[in-house]
Design brief:
The structure is a homodimer of 337-residue chains. Chain A is an all-alpha fold. Chain A starts with a helix and ends with a helix. Chain A is built from 16 helices and 2 strands. In chain A, 55% of the residues are buried. In chain A, helix 7 runs antiparallel to helix 8, helix 9 packs parallel to helix 16 and helix 12 packs across helix 14. The first copy, chain A, has a single domain, classed as Orthogonal Bundle (Farnesyl Diphosphate Synthase). A two-stranded antiparallel sheet of chain A has the order 1-2. In chain A, a hairpin with a 2-residue loop joins strand 1 and strand 2. At the A-B interface, helix 4, helix 6 and helix 7 of A face helix 4, helix 6 and helix 7 of B.
Amino acid sequence: MSVAAPALDRGRALIESSLREAVSRLDDDTRLMASYHLGWCERDGREVVAPSGKGVRPSMVLMAGEALGAAPEDLVAGAVAVELVHNFSLIHDDLMDRDSERHHRPTVWSVWGDPMAVLVGDALLSLAHEVLDGSPSPSAASAARALDRATRELIHGQVLDVAFERRSDVTLSECLEMAAGKTGALLGVSAELGAILAGAPASSTRALRRYGQEVGLAFQLIDDLLGIWGWPERTGKPVFSDLRSRKKTMPVVWAVQNGGAPGQELATWLAESDEPGELALRRAADLVDRAGGRGWAQREAQVRVEVALATLEGLGLHPTHREQLCRLARFVVERDT
Amino acid sequence: MSVAAPALDRGRALIESSLREAVSRLDDDTRLMASYHLGWCERDGREVVAPSGKGVRPSMVLMAGEALGAAPEDLVAGAVAVELVHNFSLIHDDLMDRDSERHHRPTVWSVWGDPMAVLVGDALLSLAHEVLDGSPSPSAASAARALDRATRELIHGQVLDVAFERRSDVTLSECLEMAAGKTGALLGVSAELGAILAGAPASSTRALRRYGQEVGLAFQLIDDLLGIWGWPERTGKPVFSDLRSRKKTMPVVWAVQNGGAPGQELATWLAESDEPGELALRRAADLVDRAGGRGWAQREAQVRVEVALATLEGLGLHPTHREQLCRLARFVVERDT
């Protein structure tokens, strides 16, 4: 994990001032709420350094772009834009999922109420466009179109996520489609934006997008595992959190579809609607494991990373840059937060 | 009112196919919900022609652009984009305000739930950018930047609206700032986009934006009056709807600030928190009227229209086009829906 950490730190540092400049364009109320969410201040505006995201997406823009010959300054607008879209989706996600904490701090909706959370999310989505549209890069228009498409796919993934809550017959391929949207689209466009802003040819741009999409799928698989067995002190999520809400995550759906008797028992449990106790949650997690869902998700995440790395072959990247992108991909499957 | 109706019909007809094409890019679930909201189908997807918006914003893009020499086909992307941003804000507004009906039909959140309403709104905002970013116009980038700024102002207005609900000391100038954002920004950018896409000089672009902003403020003043005294069979809003929620609209705030004894009585009533009965609502509406808030709002709307028309002077517009823009401005103060 630590091998990629310095690169992530560098990525965050490179975009920090531009991200702050972008957020400073917002009106006072919206800026306060956005800055709080980003870990820059308390709810009363007092400056702090609170835990925030890892910055995987902006780092991916920077690494992909530099690998294809761009200077960091040509990439910052793209990196800031994906970080803003990511945070737009987090704020709306927290609201929709009624998650009251993120990084051990109350979420925007739980501090300022639902309407404000809707609006702050809207403001960050709009701001992402503003940042990219304001870039002097000759590739800015092309980058904006790529971000538009990815945002549409991201929203599609979230719509499926909400729709699946009401269904008991979700298939693994539907789950994969959801993850491709929810997580794959934005990581895909992160790598793609790097390539676009580097003025790379279409074949490289496509390859980098695929790289990011596969990393995104691996990321989501690990996220699903952490949502069942994760360490709450590190992720800020309680153990069994996704099971508590009987969420149809990939390891769970795989277990139901392919897991024999334990899978059947799991399916029966998923169809129940009472509030599950600790014992029931432990039992359900055990069923996912025994049905093979845990092992499958771990292997599948590895496979996705291998596919991601394979797409980098033949692009003629400098070994140093290629190694960076490889490390970033491996980081997401080795992370424990 | 009817003088502008044919122009509005023409505007809607001109953008209809492009708007449908844009919405068709959405995934199945999101497209269904968006199409329902736009009055194109029932919740099960059955096609209908349900009442929908008047299309003032796209018509304004078209009229402003044609007045400055653009062909309609050069303006359609801008017209579709503002209509999408408008509908994004309606869907999120209905959710935030808990309005269960629009145009006599259940709103998106009341049919599909809060999370889906958040997502459909997000999807339309993103789609607006996609439409504009996909335009081959040499002015598309400039148009996108104008729309970004206006969207930020729109969200600012909505943030103020939410913040005002928790305050009892809202001033008229704050109210005007909110209306400038909530309604002025998008009408302002509608006229501005027409000018930008026509390749007009900056002075014309600024003048057209001002025209749209002033029309927007007039529009909101009339909306505030309709929110108190409007005809429910036409607007779909019950009489006294804004009073029922003790909303600090412009005529109300004016009455409190300038309305002597009736204004004081109104202020006292606004500070109460019980559910008001019909008698109390009638009394409150009467107080707004006697305090002069109704008359002020009517006159102020007229003044704003006059200012809007004045900004068109000196642009050298062809009389036919200028007359169209004048009619559109007058339409918004004469409308009763």
